[in-house]
Amino acid sequence: METVMLANGIQMPILGYGVYQVNDLEECERVVSEAIEVGYRSIDTAQAYGNESAVGNAVKKSGIPREDFFITTKVWISNAGYEKAKASIEESMEKLQTDYLDLVLIHQPFNDYYGTYRAMEEYYREGKIKAIGVSNFYPDRFIDIAEFSEIQPMVNQVETHVFNQQVEAQSIMEEYNTQIESWGPFAEGKNDFFNNETLKKIGENYGKSVAQVALRYLIQRNIVVIPKTVTKERMIQNFDVFNFSLTDEEMATILGLNQKESLFFSHYDPETVKFLTGLGKSK
Questions:
Q1: Fewest C-beta in 10 Å: which of 17, 32, 65, 128?
Q2: How many CA atoms lie within 13 A of 185 on its CB side?
Q3: Could you give the domains of the chain?
Q4: Catalytic residues
Q5: Distance CA 189, CA 263 (A)
Q6: What pLDDT digit, counting tens, does each position of 236-266 carry?
Q7: pLDDT of 49-59, one tens digit each?
Q8: 3 state SS of 194
Q9: CA–CA distance, 270 with 193 (Å, rounded to integer)
């Protein structure tokens, strides 16, 4: 598995497995176990997903040493603030059946995320967390926390796919030696993603699917990807993206698909922020 080196020297797999919206705990444990069988070692979960315990069970039952895994979770809005964040991280470690976490992110830039980050910095210094970062931080808030934190974010996980490529945001992250990570690399199928003619045509050159071309494009831009699927055949397919390379011309063609807008939500929309902060009060 190819890796990227984070700012502190930690190696993070460039391809992982995400469990967003796998709400049934039995199903989640099953699919994570299958992903591990395929070869995935980086697993991305979150407090808000409600499936950390299932991920922990699958990792434990695999029999594979804990140090071979890279486990990510995220602190939810309702757990923001120094004391609440610390308690929630302890709970996450208990559910995941581990005494340390490889990466902890702030899930959304709302509530007292500075208090949350101070708690994460403390746990990082104690060795309970190997790397810390943020998620869904747009350039403005990303720069803010990067400038005023003692330990700059090592990762920023943001919506990144061929229709919203985050080129400018990635450039800003690189200024702070922060690794960009993609959530939703398949745009959750929006814009008829899996039938995109541009990606399909390029894939024909290599005997690869639209999904594989999309993942390969992001990987060649040094973007960490965490595709999610509950089908083992697609897990295998998503894993099979290291035996071909896109040409400069193909990369430029795919860049042309960039619409530079979210297909999901915008933090610049007051109603969206009200909705997200409302979720932070209810969970």
A1: 65
A2: 28
A3: 3-282 (3.20.20.100)
A4: 49
A5: 10
A6: 999 999 999 999 999 999 999 999 999 999 9
A7: 999 999 999 99
A8: helix
A9: 28
Backbone angles phi, psi at 26, to 5 degrees: -65, -45
Assigned token pair, 236: 């295998």
Torsion sign, CA atoms 244, 180, 80, 77: negative
What angle (nearest 5°) sits at the alpha carbon of residue 104, between those of residues 85 and 58? 110
**CB burial readout 246-276, b (16+ within 10 A) else e:** beeebeebbeebeeeebbeeebeeeeebeeb
pLDDT digits (tens, 9 = 90+) for 137-163: 999 999 999 999 999 999 999 999 999
Tokens for 31, please give them.
């699919």
Q: Which two tokens stand for residue 132?
A: 């810390």
How far, in whole angstroms, is CA 89 from its chain's centroid?
17
Whole-angstrom Cα distance, residue 203 to residue 210? 6
Q: How far is CA 30 from CA 25, 27, 282, in A?
A: 9, 5, 28
Residue with tokens 């991280």: 89
Dig out the tokens for 254 from the structure: 């795919």
107: annotated binding-site residue? yes
Which regions of the chain are under pLDDT 70?
Answer: 282-283
Nearest to 164 by CA among 150, 145, 180: 180
